[in-house]
Amino acid sequence: MVHDTLEGNRRRGLPRQASRHSTLIDAVEGTLADFLAAQIIGLDAVDPALGGLARTTRDLVLAGGKRLRPTFAYWGWRGATGPGETLGPVLPALAALELMHTFALVHDDVMDESATRRGRPTAHRLFAGQHSRAGRIGDAGRFGTTAAILVGDLCLVWADQLLARTPLPTATVFAVRSCYDRMRVEAVAGQYLDVLGEHEPEAWSAERAMLVARLKTASYTVQRPLQFGLALAGPLDSDLHDVYGRYGELVGEAFQLRDDLLGVFGDPEVTGKPAGDDLRAGKPTTLLLLARQLATPAQRAELALDPAGAVNPADGSGGPSLSGMADLIRETGALAQVEDMIQERVATAVALLADTPMDAEARSTLTELAVRATQRPA
After folding, report:
1. Over the stretch 103-145, which tens digit does the pLDDT of each residue have?
2. Which of 10, 16, 52, 262 sits between 20 and 30 A of 145, alpha carbons compared?
3. Rounded distance, CA 90 to CA 234, Å?
4. Nearest to 18 by CA among 361, 372, 376
5. Does the pLDDT at position 152 exceed 50?
6. Does 271 lie in the same domain as 365?
């Protein structure tokens, strides 16, 4: 029996296959919108303030984004099934990945004290603003942080609920859940190492930074979503599982390396986030660590951390400006080396697909996605 989550998509005339990217995204967002509308009604009935919490959460979930995780999961599924399977039954599982992603983003923004995400205020800033406008007592910032943590928790619970609505055989659901749980554990592990690296950057290496990239980004952005989609297809194809694993690791690492570059050299008008946050925090990214390895003694001194752990003091006193730091990193050759690392990973990943028996359209689209995800401007 098809679940209520799919009713809105049925009304929208969902086709058998989301062969075009925009159609897939519309289907995923329709599933999310229908699910979230029901959650809002349920919480509104308990207390209007909870309805307000749910509406803010809905707005965060539906506030755009690349929808890469459900996209990779879909093509992981499609690579195994071919064009003949109906999309509807797997839509709750695909959409659940976007709720998990919102959980990760909201908590990440709290930990990084980020002001904007996708060109809009982050969750903790939104709730702090609501607190101030309502004239409530207490510290607005603390309220915002607390509410944002709860929003992230709520999204993770909702992801579980939506995943549970996937109308598939029990054995298939267990296999999907196993992949989903592994993805979540790896994302948390990578996030912890990312935080730890900020507090002991001198003990970090480029190799350990790549481990963080694999756990925090490659796993839950590309690798596990592909394998999650494969699990949705039914009995495991071990060869395809291994190819998805290697392709996903390579493209996911390249995705994070591009993110490192955009964090320093990206245009905030395009990325929706301030440039230089990683430099301000002294986060030991692969880019910064390579820059230190390649730097001359004089350049390395300028790239040294201040006592607070940042590359340059947060108040702007002393040391080069953020734009000067970016120029310095470029001069060391680290920018060019990271670009080479991205290109090498994408080329290797695409070559893996060429030698793998799979649905032809899935192979073509995964080839395109490898480039699109790693050559993006935001």
Report:
1. 999 999 999 999 988 889 999 999 999 999 999 999 999 999 9
2. 262
3. 11
4. 361
5. yes
6. yes
For residues 341 and 236, membership in a common domain is answered with yes
Please state, in angstroms and rounded to a whole number, the distance separating the CA atoms of residues 231 and 239.
Answer: 13
Same domain, yes or no, for 105 and 230?
A: no
Indicate if 200 and 112 belong to the same structural domain.
Answer: no
Q: What share of the chain is helix, strand, coil (3-state, %, to 5)?
A: 75, 0, 25
Same domain assignment for residues 136 and 260 = no
Long-range own/partner contacts, residues 20-26 (CB < 8 A, 24 or more apart) = 21/71, 24/70, 24/71, 24/74, 24/87, 25/67, 25/70, 25/71
- Residue 4 DSSP class: G
Q: Are residues 177 and 145 in the same domain?
A: no
Alpha-carbon gap, residue 175 to 172, rounded angstroms: 5
DSSP for 55-116, written as a single string: HHHHHHHTS----HHHHHHHHHHHHHH-TTS-SGGGHHHHHHHHHHHHHHHHHHHHHHT-SE
Are 49 and 97 contained in the same domain?
yes
In contact, 375 and 343? CB cutoff 8 Å: no
Tokens in use for 171? 């054995």
Residues 224, 238: Cα–Cα separation, whole Å:
14
What token pair was written down for 261? 């570059």
Which of 149, 167, 185 is at the close of a domain? 167
225-283 per-position pLDDT tens digit: 999 999 999 998 899 999 999 999 999 999 999 999 998 998 888 887 777 878 877 78
pLDDT at 334 > cutoff 80: yes
Q: Which of 309, 319, 314, 265 is nearest to 287 (CA)?
A: 265
CATH code: domain of residue 140: 1.10.600.10
Residues 282-293: pLDDT tens digits?
Answer: 789 999 999 999
| Whether residue 116 sits in one domain with residue 202 | no
Q: In this prediction, what percent of the chain has a pLDDT beyond 90?
A: 74
Q: What is the pTM assigned to this prediction?
A: 0.89
Beta bridge partners of 117: 120
* Cα of 206 vs its chain's centroid, Å: 21
